[in-house]
């Protein structure tokens, strides 16, 4: 009889399998184990295996060990305290006969007391209810109260616990947006093929099943087995960018998105959220998306929104589409440029609110070549600025149109010195000296993540370079904007 993968329940071969070192269950090595490419290579080394593998359930159990140890210690302390407590406490002002023994709890008494405490912890306490009488026993009063509480005609809050899947999950922007929204839900699985992005996702969401998988290999059967009812995704934007070739459906990078649309009729989905670059709304890919949503009875709404509308000092206009089975609690229209309920833009906070302390200026300063040849195209932000340009994945490598730079200097002083620089020879020593005095630097990756509304808990693995961080941030989403869109599902 063939072995089956414990995750996807499909047939598994010995070469493509890895067994949990704790429970011995088998998993597909490359798809279902959650291992990245480097970890798989280490496990495939000849000789003794150099890396232990634990399935998600066993790994979760191992992570609970410190908590269990602490609970055992607390229980042990509680038992010790009970052993020292007399069964009967006599008030100090009443003399105790000399022949009265001081009785201590034995072990049986201790466990009875602990059980009673646990039972009391589960009691329901109801205040301001009069004592029962002979004509209406307590039990009847309790039944009456329970009847009132369980009245189905009374208005009840609707709590929607959604099970989501992230496609093109990147560094986890959609996952963070779900958490920020406050809408109950769990990300059951995330799929991404970029190893750098996956290392960051795993660093921040170690409990989430992360599949290093080409989305074109995704099947309806696999999605349905995960039992998800919502998909959050940000497909590749290069086929639609203003600086690209704009080949639209002819671009091979749309193949995975088209594949997902072919799966849609076979999926048990209730909600979909899609993010892409501004310009997608005029593409043939968009037309295919909308037609597929209509064919599968989805109600949908399209938006073009920017973080600057939500009080964030950053311009990052993006296309969004939310779709669900059933109606939204607002009237759907053609493309909207404002969220329902947001009548006007919120005032943005100042750039200084996202600046890191003690930044090593030398690591982020602009070099002589940029200062001498590209100074005129720089977008400069100051402490009190309430705006910044969109940061792209080319930030730090190219200058024009990739994102803003920052200085601690006074804005009036900087502008006055730039006027002087325009009248000087850019290859002169005095020019370079004055340009360097502007103290211009790139934003750090942490500062950009704050502009994109990532939580303070978000972190990068220590082994990544600034270039790698800038690239994945440039491909990510604004958490605040997406969190507001997720709220519209409820």
UniProtKB/TrEMBL annotation:
PANTHER family referenced in this protein's UniProt entry, alphabetically: TRNA (CYTOSINE(38)-C(5))-METHYLTRANSFERASE
Gene3D superfamilies: DNA Methylase, subunit A, domain 2, Vaccinia Virus protein VP39
Keywords: Methyltransferase, S-adenosyl-L-methionine, Transferase
Family: Belongs to the class I-like SAM-binding methyltransferase superfamily. C5-methyltransferase family.
SUPFAM superfamilies listed in its UniProt record: FYVE/PHD zinc finger, S-adenosyl-L-methionine-dependent methyltransferases
One annotated Gene Ontology cellular component of this protein: nucleus
InterPro entries found in the cross-reference section: C5-MTase, C5_MeTfrase, SAM-dependent_MTases_sf, Znf_FYVE_PHD
Protein's UniProt name: Uncharacterized protein
Residues of the active site: 237
Gene Ontology terms: biological process: methylation
Single Gene Ontology MF annotation: methyltransferase activity
Pfam families: DNA_methylase
